[in-house]
Amino acid sequence: MLHRTLSARIERWPVRGAFTISRGAKRDVEVVIAELAEGGLVGRGEATAIYYHGESASGILAVLEGVREQVEAGLDSIALQTLLPRGAARNALDCALWDLEAKRSGIPVWRLAGLSAPQPLETAFTISLGEPARMEADARAVANLPLLKLKLAGEGDIARVAAVRKGAPAARLIVDANEAWTGRDVAAEAGALVPFGVELIEQPVKAGQDHLLDNVVSPIPLCADESCQDRADLERCVGRYAAINIKLDKAGGLTEALALAAEAPAAGLEIMVGCMLATSLGIAPAALVASQARWIDLDGALLLAEDRKHAMTATKGLLAAAAPELWG
């Protein structure tokens, strides 16, 4: 067996302007890069800490250091699923293992995973939370894009959506409440958004309080984000949500994300694929899962002030497939 080494580091990337949701604003993002070197080849994976789980970039590094011996001894993606719990640390390693295997075999990841060849994907572009006038201006600046995603906060959301619709009259709209509708009449809030053509509402209530959606009849489909991390959460979502948002950092990597995408439709749930703020290295594996999704929100790298070499590009809302020099 060839000698394998694991290295990991934190990188900080500036956000273009600020990325604002109901929990606060971010002006930069720390990502963790895991690299597996073996026989002159290097597999890479990138992860962003799930802050609402208490994760941090330094914590991810500590987790990776804690499994160094097993990883360098030849751990594969299947064994990794039981070695580490879901979360960003496992995502970084899992994606690095897929990338390494693709380089070692000469077979691209999409083919190893039994997927069709990647095609350009229509991705949402996020309008950060703000006052209606600001959100209208932000929407007007990207009104040529086909799909916009609005961050909401509860109070004043109808005015925000109305402003964005005014700024981008032809765009499709999805909204993300980020748990801010907890304690509100979800059906009534959703009903008020119908005239603006909103087609999906993400995470209206706090994760763990999904029972608040029991018997709620929403005129717009509801999507679980924080409430659905991996397959273990599917049962709780059935009957309460129409869709789930799959993110590799939540699920713990491409392996679990693919399994989740395969099982969700059988449970009657449609698929959205999203991301944290990340560079194109973190977006590339998620884009493979997105080939199976109805809604795609992979603009994490597009929201950065700069991206890495061989970055994925987006033209008129179509996200190009990743180059093998980047990942996979």
Automatic annotation (TrEMBL):
Pfam families: MR_MLE_C, MR_MLE_N. Keywords: Isomerase, Magnesium, Metal-binding. SMART domains: MR_MLE (SM00922). InterPro entries: Dipeptide_epimerase, Enolase-like_C_sf, Enolase-like_N, Enolase_C-like, Mandelate_racemase_C, Mandelate_racemase_N_dom. Residues 132-223 form the Mandelate racemase/muconate lactonizing enzyme C-terminal domain. Its EC number is 5.1.1.-. Gene3D superfamilies: Enolase-like C-terminal domain (3.20.20.120), Enolase-like, N-terminal domain (3.30.390.10). SUPFAM superfamilies: Enolase C-terminal domain-like, Enolase N-terminal domain-like. It is an enzyme of class 5 (isomerase). Its cofactor is Mg(2+). Binds 1 Mg(2+) ion per subunit. Belongs to the mandelate racemase/muconate lactonizing enzyme family. This is Dipeptide epimerase. It comes from Sphingomonas natans. The lineage of its organism: Bacteria, Pseudomonadati, Pseudomonadota, Alphaproteobacteria, Sphingomonadales.
